[in-house]
Write a structure and sequence with these properties.
The chain has helices spanning 4-10, 44-56, 59-63, 75-81, 103-114, 131-141, 156-168, 181-188, 213-227, 232-238, 243-253, 267-274, 276-289, 296-312, 318-330, 333-337, 341-345, 352-360, 366-376, 387-411, and strands at 18-24, 30-37, 68-71, 91-96, 118-124, 146-150, 172-176, 194-195. With 416 residues, the protein is an alpha/beta fold. The chain folds into two domains: 4-201, EAL domain (TIM Barrel, Alpha-Beta Barrel); 213-411, Hypothetical protein af1432 (Orthogonal Bundle). The radius of gyration is 23 Å and the shape is globular. Residues 1-8 have low confidence and may be disordered.
């Protein structure tokens, strides 16, 4: 059953094909999201009308948790309905340099800017010193507050020069397409307002992997869950000394999201009600999201992957669906723990099919994980994905997003 809140995003039987991509500051805290929509399911006009409907009813705002978000509108929508942004100040519009050559569009963008709307100019790696580009850039820089440049295609000196030049003009500069940690380190040293890219989900190379005391403690707990939690009582004993973890877990399972018929008062009761494997997965979830030294958006990404893999495994037996959840959750273990996957899995007695997916990209769960990774990267047109598969992925993603945000809100809590 689809909840009333989610139905505003799903809009009946047709889920909104969207992916939420974070933009983080130099401390890796959230600045804003970019929302990317897939046009393969609907034509542009239909998709834009659906996007407009989700803005009007507040579903987009809830999807980004009241944070700032940038998205692309069609030219027609900007000309006819740019006024909608006046009532949603946390939503900004991404525009291209070519907009400066379109007088009606420029007039509409001018109205958005005058009403306090946020415009983000996506420059990519364009040569802004060329005559026509320089004129267009000059016209747009009087309107926009944010400028994004492609960090993957600019040489380090050009990246620095362009960032510092735009920053000196009072603009908030965003580094786009930051795909690795070397590029991220270069961007961190520059006056970028935000950094966006796949670097967040990729492990940083280290000469010698050293697991801190906190991370070893997490691994010990995860190992105990796999080895010792053979029944509800044993599961409760594994975490009996961790009052904060028990508090978070019970607060989450007793929340309105799950609509339980009665309150569960212990981990043992929860394990009996939900099933042992599911509770093991949720304890692992709460354990990983309790790592305060990792970027929150990385932790959310792990939760989204876990739930999405489980959703896409609905045709499999229940045990395999729960193993798919574990595969998605642990797929970011390298980035979470700052250590190689092979080393980490030496500490975890996982099922062979999970290990095969994580280490070799083989086995029944590897295709699920690959699909999720494509979706989260916004690679919505890659491969031979059919429209019905895109709809299925969109449904799984939207449910995973809502679930992950809900669970993470409890992971952040501290008992009074």
């Amino acid at each position: 059953m689809v909840s009333s809140e989610q139905s505003q995003i799903v809009l009946g039987e047709a889920p909104l094909p969207v992916v939420r991509i974070p933009m983080l500051d130099r401390e890796r805290q959230l600045v804003a999201y970019e929302l990317i929509f897939n046009h393969d399911v609907d034509d542009e006009a239909t998709l834009m009308q659906r996007v407009l409907a989700t803005i009007a009813d507040g579903a987009i705002t809830r999807m980004v948790r009241d944070n700032y978000a940038f998205l692309r509108f069609s030219r027609e929508l900007l000309l006819k309905r740019a006024d909608v942004l006046q009532h949603h100040r946390r939503l900004g519009v991404i525009v291209e340099l070519s907009a400066a050559l379109d007088p009606p569009l420029m007039e509409s963008l001018q109205q958005v800017a005058q009403r306090g709307g946020s415009l983000l100019l996506d420059l990519g790696d364009m040569d802004i010193d060329a005559g026509e580009s320089r004129v267009a850039l000059s016209a747009l820089l009087t309107l926009v507050r944010f400028v994004r440049i492609d960090a993957s295609k600019l040489a380090p000196d050009a990246l620095r020069e362009r960032c510092e030049m735009l920053h000196a003009r009072g603009l908030q500069v965003i580094a786009g397409n930051v795909e690795d940690h070397d590029t991220w380190h270069r961007c961190q040293a520059l006056p970028f307002h935000a950094i966006q890219g796949r670097y967040l989900l990729r492990p940083e190379k280290v000469d010698v992997a050293v697991l801190s005391a906190n991370r070893l403690s997490v691994l010990r707990l995860l190992r105990a869950l796999e080895e010792e939690a053979t029944g509800p009582v044993e599961l409760g004993q594994v975490i009996r000394n961790d009052v904060i973890l028990s508090y978070k877990l019970l607060s989450c399972v007793n929340s309105a999201y799950f609509a339980l018929p009665r309150q569960l008062k212990s981990v043992e009761q929860a394990a009996i009600f939900f099933g042992l494997t599911r509770m093991r997965n949720w304890i692992s979830t709460m354990t990983l999201t309790g790592m305060d030294d990792r970027p929150p958006e990385l932790l959310r990404a792990a939760l989204i992957r876990a739930h999405m893999c489980e959703q896409l495994a609905q045709s499999m037996p229940r045990e395999q669906r729960e193993m798919a959840f574990t595969t998605g959750l642990f797929s970011l273990l390298e980035s979470l723990m700052c250590a190689p996957m092979a080393l980490l899995l030496q500490h975890l007695p996982l099922a062979p099919d999970i290990r095969s997916a994580l280490l070799e990209q083989q086995g029944p769960f590897a295709p699920l994980l690959e699909q999720v990774q494509q979706w989260e990267a916004g690679e919505l047109r890659s491969g031979d994905i059919q429209p019905q598969q895109i709809r299925r992925m969109a449904t799984a993603y939207l449910e995973a997003l809502r679930w992950a945000d809900h669970v993470y809100s409890f992971a952040e809590q501290r008992p009074n």
